[in-house]
Amino acid sequence: MDLGIKGRRAIVCASSKGLGRACAIALANEGVHVTITARGAEALAKTAAEIRAANPGITVTEVAGDITTPDGRAAVLKACPDPDILINNAGGPPPGDFRNWTRDDWIKALDANMLTPIELIKATVDGMMARKFGRIVNITSAAVKAPIDILGLSNGARAGLTGFIAGLSRKTVINNVTINALLPGPFETDRLIGTAKIESERRGIPAEQILADRAKLNPAGRFGDPEEFGLACAFLCAAKAGYITGQNILLDGGAFPGTL
Known about the structure:
Layout: E1 9-12, H1 18-29, E2 33-38, H2 41-54, E3 60-64, H3 70-79, E4 85-88, H4 103-131, E5 134-139, H5 152-172, E6 177-184, H6 190-203, H7 207-217, H8 226-236, E7 248-251
Parallel strand pairs: 1-2, 1-4, 2-3, 4-5, 5-6, 6-7
Helix pairs in contact: 1-8, 4-5, 6-7
């Protein structure tokens, strides 16, 4: 399927690894020029080199930095001031008990998972509307729909972003600018492995066993492949996806048991 976005320009946040990387690869495979960013310069450079090798006809710009800071956002927007596509993504805050979280913990979570996406949208959405094309995808979490108790910081911050987008996305679509969210369940990423290690230490069970048991509980009998996620993201960015906006799309192997 030709998604009709060849030659477009995209910013993909937190894209050196995991789901962000998968989104950058999927867009590049469609001929989109990508500006990728992450804090780890070495991993970012490796991902950029891989994308360039696979797609010699596109431009890949790497910007090492922390997208959750004003300086990090400014550097990315300087490298790609007029993106057609924006993929908002940032690592989730740590799990824990809300009784132990301080105000600073909450502010960090809000900065990363709510306010940073809003700031990037604020900086780019008017240009998209003026050009009559824009695709914004926020990578949030399945926990927005089915909260996970130990991920309260993430639940709160990402739900706040979701509520904000519910209103904004109905105002931009008339100018062919859509804003949607992808809600990942368990995918084979470093974060999944990291949470398993934490649980392993708490329960005294090997992390490999925890992961295997958790995979069996999913209706699909497995974890998601990041490539699947990237392809879903690319589809939401398609030229013909302009009638999809304000949606929160679960990619969880059927784990959420509800009807709606």
